[in-house]
Design brief:
By secondary structure, this protein is α/β, with parallel strands linked by helices. It has two domains: about 80 residues, no CATH class; about 220 residues, Spore Coat Polysaccharide Biosynthesis Protein SpsA, Chain A (Alpha-Beta Complex), CATH 3.90.550. The protein has seven helices and 13 strands. Strands 5, 6, 7, 8, 9, 10, 11, 12 and 13 form a nine-stranded mixed beta sheet that branches. A four-stranded antiparallel beta sheet has the order 1-4-3-2, with no helix packed on it. Strand 5, helix 3 and strand 6 form a beta-alpha-beta unit. It is globular, with a radius of gyration of 27 Å. The termini are far apart.
C-alpha cells in the first residue's frame, strides 16, 4: 500500500494530480524532496518532479502525461467557473450573452443566429440629430450589425417612424455620455459574440461614396487592426489631430511624420497621437480589444479625454501595427455641440 504526504511547500493541486496518476498506474516513489508543479520526462518509465523521481510500472509512454494534463483541465473547469455558479452543473452554465432580440410567441428562432460575423454599432443620440443618425445607420446593414442607441435626451418615441427603429435597441438616460452607457451596457460578456464594436458619436457625415461598412470591415480584418477608425475628410471635417485626417491614394495609415507645422511627430516617434492612435468620436474595437478597453473606462468618465492615449494597452500586441486609420473609407466629423440636451429643447 502506498501512502502520500504533501509537504507544506507543495500545492494541494499538484498533490492531487500525482495521487491520481499513482492510483491509475501503480506508481512508486524514489528519492526525496518537495513536489513542484513543473516536471520533466527522464525516460519512458519515470519523470522528475523537482528532486523526486516517479517511476511507473504499468503505464504506456506518454499516458501519465496525458492523464495529468486531463486532470489539470478538469480541475480548471471547476475552479475557473464564474463566481456564484459553483453549485450549478456544468452543462447549464451560460457565461456570455448578446443583444439579439427574440420574438415573444415564436419557437422557430434558434439560438446562436448571430454567427461569428455579426457586429455591433452603438451611438449616443439626441433627437436634434435624427436625420444625421438615420443616414449613419442606413450604412450598417441589419444582416451584419446590431444597432443600439443611447438616448441622452430622454426622447425615444420620436424615433419610431424610422424603418429600422423597431430592430434597434433603445436605452435612455438623460444627460449621460456614450461612455457612461458603454460601461454599464456593453460589458465584454454581453458583447462577446460581436466581432467588431463600433462606438460612434452622432455628428458624423457618411455620404455614399465615402463609407461602405462591408469594405471597411474587410480592410481592418485583412490588415489585422484591433483598434481603428475611418479617416476624416480634411476639408469638410473638424480635425483635432493630424493623424486622423485622410491621406489621398492610401488604403490606411498607422502614423504621421508632420504635426501641423510643428516638430512633434517625426520618423522616430513611437507615441500617440503620432503613431498607433485613434480619436474617440468614431473608434472601432475588435472583440478582444474591447474586452480590454472596457476595464479602462472609469465609472465617472464623461468625455473620455485622455483615454485615447491609453488605448494602445489594448492593441493585442504592437500598437504601431494593430492600431490604424482607414483612408479608403472615410467620414466627415461635423463637430456639432450635441451631448447634454434636455427633452424640452427646441
Amino acid at each position: 500500500m502506498v501512502s502520500f504526504h504533501c509537504a507544506s511547500a507543495m500545492s494541494a493541486f499538484s498533490c492531487s494530480l500525482f495521487v491520481v496518476a499513482s492510483l491509475f498506474c501503480g506508481a512508486y516513489f524514489i528519492s526525496s524532496g518537495f513536489f513542484t508543479k513543473g516536471y520533466s520526462e527522464v525516460s519512458s518509465s519515470s519523470i522528475n518532479i523537482g528532486n523526486l523521481v516517479v517511476k511507473f510500472r504499468d503505464c504506456q509512454d506518454g499516458e501519465v502525461i496525458n492523464m495529468l494534463q486531463s486532470s489539470k483541465s478538469a480541475t480548471c473547469k471547476v475552479r475557473c467557473r464564474p463566481p456564484g455558479s459553483e453549485a450549478l452543473p456544468q452543462g447549464i452554465i451560460v457565461k456570455t450573452s448578446n443583444l439579439e432580440m427574440r420574438p415573444l410567441w415564436s419557437d422557430t428562432v434558434k439560438p446562436g443566429n448571430l454567427g461569428p460575423s455579426a457586429n455591433l454599432l452603438a451611438i449616443a443620440v439626441g433627437i436634434k440629430q435624427k436625420e444625421i443618425v438615420d443616414r449613419i445607420i442606413k450604412k450598417f446593414p441589419a444582416r451584419d450589425f446590431v444597432v443600439m442607441l443611447f438616448h441622452y435626451d430622454g426622447v425615444v418615441d420620436e424615433w419610431r417612424d424610422l424603418e429600422w427603429s423597431d430592430q434597434a435597441i433603445h436605452l435612455s438616460a438623460v444627460n449621460q455620455t456614450k461612455w457612461w452607457f458603454a460601461k454599464r451596457f456593453l460589458h465584454p460578456d454581453i458583447v462577446a459574440e460581436y466581432k467588431y464594436i463600433f462606438l460612434w458619436d452622432e455628428d458624423l457625415g457618411v455620404d455614399f461614396e465615402k463609407l461602405c461598412t462591408s469594405l471597411y470591415l474587410s480592410i481592418i480584418e485583412d490588415e489585422g487592426l484591433e483598434i481603428s477608425q475611418p479617416a476624416l475628410d480634411p476639408v469638410k471635417s473638424d480635425v483635432h489631430h493630424q493623424i486622423t485626417a485622410r491621406k489621398r491614394n492610401s488604403r490606411l495609415h498607422r502614423r504621421i511624420y508632420k504635426f501641423k507645422g510643428s516638430g512633434r511627430c517625426d520618423s522616430h516617434s513611437t507615441a500617440p497621437p503620432c503613431i498607433g492612435w485613434v480619436e474617440m468620436m468614431a473608434p472601432v474595437f475588435s472583440r478582444a480589444a474591447w474586452r480590454c478597453a472596457w476595464y479602462m473606462i472609469q465609472n465617472d468618465l464623461i468625455h473620455a479625454w485622455g483615454l485615447d492615449m491609453q488605448l494602445g494597452y489594448c492593441a493585442q500586441g504592437d500598437r504601431m501595427k494593430n492600431v490604424g486609420v482607414v483612408d479608403a473609407q472615410y467620414i466627415v466629423h461635423l463637430g456639432l455641440p450635441t451631448l447634454g440636451g434636455r427633452r424640452n429643447f427646441t
